[in-house]
Amino acid sequence: MPLVSITRFRARAFWFVPLFAFHAQRSISQIRNAKGCLALALLKDKKRTFWTMTMWTDERSRKSYMTSACHRKAMPRLADWADEAGVVHWHQNQPERPDWLEAARRMRAEGRPSKLRHPGPRHADLSFPEPWTTVDNLFETFPAD
Q1: Alpha-carbon gap, residue 102 to 89, rounded angstroms
Q2: What is the pLDDT of residue 145?
Q3: What is the pLDDT of residues 37-58, one digit of tens each?
Q4: I want to staple 49 with a disulfide (CB 3.0 to 4.6 A). Which of 10, 76, 140, 144 is the partner?
Q5: Could you confirm whether domain 3-142 is CATH 3.30.70.100?
């Protein structure tokens, strides 16, 4: 049963987007070689919002990636850069990635907000709008669909 991990990040100002993109690119390079990673998908949503979806063989592999190298260095910075952020994880029977609407549904129902220094009004209750899902804003997948 694969473990699905979803994150959502909304930059609180435009000038944080390039900083986030720099660290995200380094983390993407790291995840391509991460043991236990089955899939990665990224979604560039509206209003400076970004989603990640990863699938893992197990929790140990996910935590190992999360607490090492580039990803570990980027995580503390997000508390200053975001005004909305959340995370959710679940196990599923099917090997296919869920769609982004299912990811948003799970985030609202089962997710938790991240600790932020400058939370926006919709941060604590995860009351964000539906993700904007078009082919144009799915900007990275691994393995390829």
Answers
A1: 12
A2: 46
A3: 999 999 999 999 999 999 999 9
A4: 10
A5: yes
Burial 21-41 (b: 16+ CB within 10 A, else e): eebbeebbebbeebebbbbbb
pLDDT given at position 30? 84
CA distance linking residue 105 with residue 45, whole number of Å:
15
Could you give the CA distance from residue 52 to residue 61 in angstroms, rounded to a whole number? Answer: 16
Q: Determine how many CB atoms are found less than 10 A away from the CB of residue 1.
A: 11
Q: What number of other Cβ atoms are within 10 A of residue 84's Cβ?
A: 24
Q: For the chain, what's the residue count?
A: 145
What are the φ and ψ backbone dihedral angles of 125, each rounded to 5 degrees? -100, 5
For the segment 115-137, what is each residue's pLDDT rounded down to a tens digit?
A: 999 999 999 999 999 998 876 65
